[in-house]
């Protein structure tokens, strides 16, 4: 096996949002100037903690709404980050909401070396956007996209959402066709989920809306078929791209490589442990002023955890997982009889198949049940 260290990614959480979308459960704050200043100062301290002996290959800025920062603030955050990296990352993604896309911001990002803009569209239908609590409208989407294309970033992504209450299959197909028609080289599609402590969850609890799993499957299958017809290759359950336009940062994460999270609530998987920064701006800022910043929900990563996650997340990718490689990497758990029985069960039920001798892949039927399969996998792996 190679002694080369695994790919290292860097995730930066920008927690500021002008409003809370009905479906969002991520940690966020209102963009008050004093809090923005404290955030930028503390991020500078956290960037200074990055390892000096590892190259950061990919960077992802998420939120929250990173694009809510001014051009000046984006420049400061980017320069502080780059000043603590050994070299320019190969891929640098920034999430932006249509209402925050401005020419001056894009200019700053392009000059700093950002390679990928990911815009959260959700839908091109004004009524569906309103039902999700989104601040933007279709007109803003088109204006923002025009600015992004004019800035000429190497890659661009559009996020879409399906199984929205009252959304029809025709509306879903129209959204996909519109995204493809705009020329996006990557499209992410997410099934609406009902997270606790969100406005949509409250409506679900009150019976104002309901979950229809049969309807969700129809959205999945119709979306997959249409995206394939339009020339987008599915490489992960929710992600489709033109050839060579996959998101490397996310692929490395699904493959259980290492990443460091900076910012309040950011999670890390690095140096044999997994932990999270406090999901509170005040606690996080205070922690960044100490010699030992707080690590919450900290766990030491052993072979059983890494093997389980490598299988569960690896199966989300169409390329599947190489069982021979994983068994070599994690010999004490990779050959457990209980795991072998579960793999055979998946094959018998036609939820998975083996290719090229050792590549375990989910079938289309299996991908529709990926979350359930992942949960079931934890039992035989936990007893291995």
Describe the structure.
- With 384 residues, this protein is α/β, with parallel strands linked by helices.
- It folds into 2 domains: 246 residues, Aldolase class I (TIM Barrel, Alpha-Beta Barrel), CATH 3.20.20.70; 80 residues, Arc Repressor Mutant, subunit A (Orthogonal Bundle), CATH 1.10.10.920.
- 42% of the residues lie in helices and 20% in strands.
- It contains 16 helices and 15 strands.
- The strands form 3 sheets. It has a 9-stranded mixed beta sheet with strand order 7-8-6-5-4-3-2-1-9, sandwiched between helices. It has a 3-stranded antiparallel beta sheet with strand order 10-11-12, with no helix packed on it.
- Helix 1 links the parallel strand 1 and strand 2.
- Helix 6 packs parallel to helix 8.
- The chain is globular.
CATH architecture of the largest domain: Alpha-Beta Barrel
Instruction: Report the mean per-residue pLDDT as an integer.
Output: 89
> Any idea what the radius of gyration is?
21 Å
Instruction: Specify the oligomeric state.
Output: single chain
State the strand order across the main sheet.
7-8-6-5-4-3-2-1-9
* Strand percent estimate: 15-25%
CATH topology descriptor of the largest domain: TIM Barrel
Shape: globular
What is the level 1 CATH name of the largest domain? Answer: Alpha Beta
Kindly, what is the distance between the CA atoms of the first and last residues, rounded to a whole number of angstroms? 24 Å
CATH superfamily of the largest domain: Aldolase class I
Q: Structurally, how many domains make up the residues?
A: 2
Tell how many strands the DSSP assignment holds: 15
- Helix tally equals 16
Give unreliable regions as ranges. Answer: 20-26, 198-205
Structural class: alpha/beta
Percent helix range: 40-55%
Q: Major sheet: size, sense and barrel closure?
A: 9 strands, mixed
């Amino acid at each position: 096996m190679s002694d080369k260290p695994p790919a290292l990614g860097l995730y930066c959480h920008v927690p500021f949002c002008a409003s809370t979308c009905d479906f969002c459960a991520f940690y966020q704050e209102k963009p008050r100037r004093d809090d923005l200043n404290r955030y930028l100062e503390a991020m500078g301290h956290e960037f200074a903690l990055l390892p000096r002996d590892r190259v950061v290959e990919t960077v992802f800025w998420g939120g929250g709404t990173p694009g809510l920062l001014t051009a000046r603030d984006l420049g400061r955050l980017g320069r502080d980050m780059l000043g603590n990296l050994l070299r320019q990352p190969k891929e640098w993604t920034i999430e932006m909401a249509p209402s925050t896309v401005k020419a001056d911001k894009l200019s700053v990002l392009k000059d700093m070396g950002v390679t990928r803009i990911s815009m959260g569209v959700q839908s091109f239908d004004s009524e569906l956007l309103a039902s999700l609590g989104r601040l933007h409208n279709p007109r803003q989407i088109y204006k923002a996209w025009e600015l992004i294309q004019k800035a000429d970033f190497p890659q661009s992504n559009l996020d879409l959402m399906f199984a929205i209450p009252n959304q029809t299959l025709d509306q879903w197909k129209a959204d996909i066709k519109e995204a493809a028609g705009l020329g996006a080289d990557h499209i992410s599609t997410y099934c609406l989920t009902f997270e606790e402590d969100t406005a949509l969850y409250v409506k679900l609890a009150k019976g104002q809306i309901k979950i229809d799993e049969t309807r969700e499957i129809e959205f999945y299958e119709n979306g997959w078929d249409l995206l394939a017809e339009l020339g987008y290759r599915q490489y992960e359950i929710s992600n489709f791209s033109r050839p060579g336009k996959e998101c490397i940062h996310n692929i490395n994460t699904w493959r259980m490589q290492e990443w460091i999270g900076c910012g309040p609530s950011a999670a890390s998987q690095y140096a044999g442990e997994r932990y999270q920064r406090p999901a509170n701006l005040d606690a996080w800022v205070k922690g960044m002023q100490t010699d030992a910043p707080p690590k919450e929900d900290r766990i030491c990563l052993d072979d059983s955890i890494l093997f389980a996650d490598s299988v569960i997340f690896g199966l989300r990718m169409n390329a599947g997982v190489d069982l021979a490689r994983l068994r070599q990497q994690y010999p004490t758990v990779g050959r457990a009889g209980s795991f072998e029985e579960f793999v055979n069960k998946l094959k018998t039920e036609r939820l998975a198949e083996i290719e090229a001798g050792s590549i375990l892949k989910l079938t289309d039927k299996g991908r529709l049940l990926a979350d359930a399969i992942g949960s079931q996998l934890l039992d035989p792996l936990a007893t291995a």
